[in-house]
User: Which sequence fits this backbone?
């Protein structure tokens, strides 16, 4: 059950990540993605070669801030349109498999 | 062994904005399911969120009221979340750079005042609402995207009483600031509890349990009473507390462990690439500070000087913004500030608590209560009659003057009309007359009571008493 979180910069635990993403992977897929993800990590590691001395960390690549809108309402979707992609529908609600807590 | 409890609360507060946090859908309660929804709050691929300025403003105003440090730079993060009430499969929240840090809420438990320290306040989006059926769940996304402020305390409380006082004090301030309606029935305020217990002679905190999704203050109080006792019992019997999430069953009055979610705490936060950081300038923060309404302490001082009522009364009245608003209207309209506070603090508070409602839902308008006070001050009605009028007003509403007429409650002040009643009481109670003449004060009160009984409470005591004395002393 409680697969321990065992990631490091070098390695991604594919089964664990798949579980978090609620994806079912068979053994062959785990092996396939493990290789692919390791390659991606290796590639990303090139960034470590950069000298970032004196550079502030940021969450965004472009220097834009305060993208705000005024607090005004706009028409919502018509209900029928909103429900168009519902897997199932009853009493105006989206019907989904029962969620257990 | 003595045990002490440690409690921290995370309170979610829906903000009073016109539109949702990321889209222009209306932020309203009670629409038919899936009416106030659009591609953004339904989490459609390709839709993009744009931050509502008002949600930031209300959160910062809250931070200012609670003495928080306002972040000059804050950002948005995605929190992985796999439930159908959040179709994006992540909730946009603030992880390491929230809008407000620190701060505190002053509480008062039976006269003992102290401050509960806050860790932070961040802004996030509310999720949709699920209803569970036999085999399926129904989801309504009207609530999804409602701006939700999460106010996190330090593990700073040690009893159910303190937690209750904290929530009440917090609600009072939020209402004063006008940042939320704080309507608990509508889910405007919801709370997660963290609670642990440890032996009094150790410093190391015990293992905590989390009780999720509390939606009444009373429930928080009861759940804490129960959970603290449960943990004490486990520890005193040599057992161990498991770190787990528990659910409060309000009907049964117990908490029980929820089926533990695996990796429950691996939310995999990462910066939301769709949302740019919020950078606040001194000027911006200052201008929001200027727009803060009068807070309880300032209002108390003003009411004291403006209306000259006792300090105690002022304290009770400003405790609730709605009560303070009501009071000031009645005081102004009636021209009798002390009578206004007396009526509100005694009859009104009693009736409200008996009916289990807030002053905002009372049928007595401030105008009507002011009119009632004027009727008393003008001797048109005595206190006994006034209380009856009050009760009618409270249950049915209406105009006090009309009620006085309809019910024949007008005070009788005409001494010639009252004299016959007074003479009758004197004739019928020779023993009391004797007692009165022997100097017993209570005899006069008894005869006064008899006059009131015969006149069905309508006699004006200020006319009856002198009249009694005059005839008895003659
Ligand atoms: Zn929307």
Assistant:
């Amino acid at each position: 059950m409680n697969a321990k979180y065992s990631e490091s910069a070098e390695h991604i635990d594919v089964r664990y990540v798949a579980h978090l993403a609620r994806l079912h992977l068979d053994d062959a897929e785990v092996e396939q993605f493990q290789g692919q993800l390791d390659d991606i990590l290796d590639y990303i590691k090139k960034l470590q070669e950069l000298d970032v001395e004196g550079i502030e960390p940021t969450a965004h690549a472009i220097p834009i801030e305060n993208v705000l809108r005024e607090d005004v309402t706009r028409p919502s979707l018509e209900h029928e349109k909103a429900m168009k992609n519902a897997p199932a529908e009853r009493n105006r609600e989206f019907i989904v498999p029962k969620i257990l807590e | 062994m003595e045990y002490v409890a440690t409690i921290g609360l995370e309170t979610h507060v829906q903000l009073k904005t016109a539109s949702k946090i990321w889209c222009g859908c209306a932020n309203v309660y009670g629409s038919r399911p899936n009416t106030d929804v659009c591609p953004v709050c339904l989490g459609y691929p390709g839709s993009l969120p744009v931050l509502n300025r008002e949600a930031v403003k209300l959160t910062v105003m809250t931070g200012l009221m609670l003495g928080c440090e306002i972040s000059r730079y804050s950002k948005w993060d995605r929190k992985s979340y796999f439930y159908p009430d959040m179709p994006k499969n992540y909730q946009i929240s603030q992880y390491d750079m929230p809008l407000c840090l620190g701060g505190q809420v002053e509480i008062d438990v039976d006269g003992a005042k102290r401050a509960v320290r806050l860790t932070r306040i961040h802004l996030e989006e509310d999720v949709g609402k699920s209803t569970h059926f036999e085999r399926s769940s129904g989801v309504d996304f009207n609530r999804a995207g409602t701006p939700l402020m999460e106010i996190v305390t330090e593990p700073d409380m040690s009893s159910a009483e303190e937690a209750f006082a904290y929530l009440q004090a917090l609600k009072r301030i939020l209402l004063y600031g006008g940042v939320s309606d704080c309507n608990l029935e509508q889910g405007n305020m919801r709370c997660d509890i963290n609670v642990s217990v440890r032996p009094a002679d150790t410093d190391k905190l015990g293992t905590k349990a989390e009780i999720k999704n509390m939606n009444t203050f009373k429930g928080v109080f009861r759940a804490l009473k129960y959970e603290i006792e449960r943990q004490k019992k486990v520890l005193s019997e040599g057992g161990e507390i498991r770190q787990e999430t528990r659910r409060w069953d309000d009907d049964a009055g117990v908490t029980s462990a929820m089926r533990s979610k695996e990796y429950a705490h691996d939310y995999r936060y990462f910066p939301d690439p769709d949302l740019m950081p919020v950078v606040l300038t001194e000027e911006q923060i200052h201008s929001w500070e200027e727009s803060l309404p009068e807070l309880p302490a300032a209002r108390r001082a003003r009411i004291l000087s403006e209306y000259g009522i006792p300090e105690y009364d002022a304290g009770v009245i400003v405790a609730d913004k709605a009560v303070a608003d009501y009071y000031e209207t009645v005081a102004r309209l009636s021209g009798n500030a002390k009578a206004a506070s007396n009526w509100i603090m005694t009859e009104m508070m009693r009736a409200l608590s008996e009916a289990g409602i807030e002053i905002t839902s009372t049928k007595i308008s401030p105008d009507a209560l002011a009119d009632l006070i004027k009727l008393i001050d003008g001797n048109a009605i005595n206190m006994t009659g006034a209380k009856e009028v009050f009760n009618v007003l409270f249950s049915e509403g209406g105009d006090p003057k009309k009620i006085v007429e309809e019910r024949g409650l007008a005070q009788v002040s005409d001494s010639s009309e009252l004299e016959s009643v007074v003479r009758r009481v004197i004739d019928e109670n020779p023993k009391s007359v004797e007692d009165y003449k022997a100097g017993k004060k209570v005899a006069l009160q008894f005869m006064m009571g008899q006059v009131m009984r015969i006149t069905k409470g309508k006699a004006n005591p200020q006319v009856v008493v002198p009249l009694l004395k005059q005839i008895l002393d003659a």
